[in-house]
Amino acid sequence: MRKNLVFVLAAALPTAILCAPNRASAQLPQNAPQNVPPIAGFPADAQKAADSIEPEKIRAHVRFLSLDLLEGRGPGTRGDKLAAEYIATQFALEGVKPAGENGTYFQKVPLLAVHTLEDKTRFALEPATGQPLELNYGTEIVAKDQTGQPTADFNAPIVFVGYGINAPEYHWNDYAGVDLKGKVALVIVNEPPSDDESFFKGKALTYYGRWTYKYEEAARRGAVGVLIIHRTDLASYGWDVVRNSQAIEKSYLQGDPDATLRAAAWIQHDVADRLFQAAGLGAADDQIAKAGKPGFKAVELPVKLQAHIESRVRRYDSTNVVGRVEGAASGANAVLYSAHYDHLGIDPDAKGDNIYNGAADNGTGCGILLEMARAFAQGGARPPHDVFFAAVTAEEQGLLGSQYLGMHPPVPARDITLDLNYDMLLPIGVPRSVNLGGADRIDFWPTVQRVAKDFDLQLLPDPNPMAGHYYRSDHFSLARVGIPAFSLDQGELFEGHDEAWGRAKSEDYVAHHYHQPSDEYHADWDFRGNAKLARFGFVLGWLAGAQPKPVEWKPGDEFEAARKKTISGF
Ligand SMILES: [Zn+2]
Predict the structure, then answer these.
(1) Cα-flanking dihedrals φ and ψ of residue 219, to 5°?
(2) Based on the domain organization, do 90 and 118 belong to the same domain?
(3) pLDDT of 569 higher than 80
(4) What average pLDDT does range 392-402 have in this prediction?
(5) How far is the CA of 151 from the centre of ligand 1 (A)?
(6) Which end of the chain has fewer CB atoms < 10 Å from its terminal CB, N or C?
């Protein structure tokens, strides 16, 4: 009973009082007020508004959203609804206007969760001549039926499509001349090897290399299934990662036009070997090598895939929470700030602490989003154009809430000039470096560099371009519909410390707390850094909205075509 009482109180009272118990810990970093430095083109009243951003207000939001009461904010759960209601209530208290459906703050996100019934699911390779080859589920193949139907049965020809990429900007199309309708695409993960920046961005991974792209591209071509060949060096993780991620329930957006495969599967490298041998094409590695060279031609194999898949399916809804601060002018050049509020919920089978509180991931991003919304709404400065704030759901399920937001933006995508995303910023001090992966893809980059310098923030290059980090956070969902977008991540250099200190802190978090029940709120956390990056983002958004013309992708960027499409409407 007491527990519930505490909860009701929390919703009713303004945040200030909540901070009381933290006042002691708030003393720690009191000495250095962190104001916005003078910045060309950034007006004094906006400076005052950005200066009003308070670390302790961010703390209050993080503390609340990561309470056990919120039960790990799993999409579709009670904790999810509580978090969404909290965020909407804060928007209302801050004077942020509703920008969801039907005059509310809420945008319903219809989801479906699929769990493959492994003991009832069967796969076999059927060569034109010779015996069928039964595949062992789990050790040789894993799969998901994306359609949400309880059973799938098919027996379809397999077409080897190499890397399965259609990239007009690189004059590369593995699907040239083949019809995939009702067939199974056999495809290699990653992309053709390159050291040339102008060809598949050299060593950096493009979206074409991501496993999700392989499924989407084949689905768009009417394939019934996809077999991704796993090789540890190409995937940059072992079969165990594939196995484990496929063993749990996976969610999709209901009606997602790119999630129509009856079998979205991975096969082990040696299964690919046996498949190519059965087709008379020798070793898999030879075929993989050939597929990376210009002139590769897709080939239908004299082997069929016979599949029987049974799935446990559940349909459920979650919510994006969207608010708007009115600008001096509406229409084009609006700015969007995003952060996911969902996390991993509760693991009913786990012993001991089984609540995934998600304090850093992504209580911090939500706290920053709410405090920025307050500063824009109450700071006394009217932004040049409308500013939207979106707390999105189901990020942990595959960026689904932001995908839905990208498909149903609060204003047409062409009218949004920039999306700035916040995800997991450890509150451990004041950063002096940032990682803005993807910000150099847009023509706003010189302004980003200038303002970062003013904020005493070193710009770090992507530490691991081959991992494709740009495609793993919510800004990517907006980029896919053409909106220039990137995330503001802090680097490893913090005031009063060397880089090794920052690195040790983030490595410790990733090793012991990332996606663990122990990602919990700490009273001794220092939120001045979150506040600094909120002010930094405030300034960037303001300047982007104040530009005479919208932000654009640099010529030739993989998202430039999507932008042109949203602007021209076709
Ligand atoms: Zn996250």
Answers:
(1) -65, -40
(2) no
(3) no
(4) 97
(5) 33
(6) N
| CB 454, CB 39: distance < 8 Å | yes
Contact 174, 164 (CB under 8 A): yes
pLDDT at 356 over 60: yes
Coil, strand, or helix at residue 454? helix
- Summarised one tens digit per residue, pLDDT across range 269-327 is 999 999 999 999 999 999 999 999 999 999 999 999 999 999 999 999 999 999 999 99
In this structure, are 185 and 248 located in the same domain? yes
Asked if the structure places residue 157 within a domain, the reply is: yes
- H or E element that contains 3: helix 2-12
* pTM for the model: 0.91
Tell me: do 74 and 179 sit in the same domain: no
Dist. CA 565 → ligand 1 center (Å): 29
* pLDDT surpassing 50 at residue 20: no
Are 217 and 258 within 8 A, CB to CB? Answer: no
Residue 363 C-alpha to ligand 1 middle, in angstroms? 9
Q: Which of 271, 288, 314 is the last residue of a domain?
A: 314
Assess whether 151 and 216 both reside in one domain: yes
- Asked, for residue 351, whether it belongs to a domain, the answer is yes
Tokens of 172: 């590369």
Q: Give 437 Cα–ligand 1 centroid separation in angstroms.
A: 15
**C-alpha 178 to ligand 1 mean position (Å):** 39
Range of the domain at 264: 114-314
What is the tally of structural domains in the chain?
A: 2
- Do 228 and 165 form a contact (C-beta atoms < 8 A)? no
Distance 366 CA to ligand 1 centre (A): 10
Answer yes or no: is 320 within a domain: no
For residues 40 and 134, membership in a common domain is answered with no
**36 alpha carbon – ligand 1 mean position (Å):** 27
CA of 481 to the centre of ligand 1 (A): 21
Q: Quick check: 6 pLDDT over 70?
A: no
Model confidence at 450: pLDDT above 50? yes
Give yes or no: residues 289 and 436 share one domain. no
Residue 251 CA, ligand 1 centroid: distance in Å: 16
Res. 570 pLDDT band, cuts 50 70 90: low
> How far, in Å, from the CA of 478 to the mean position of ligand 1?
16
CA 327 / ligand 1 centre spacing (Å): 29
Cα–Cα distance measured from residue 395 to residue 340, given in angstroms and rounded to the nearest whole number: 6
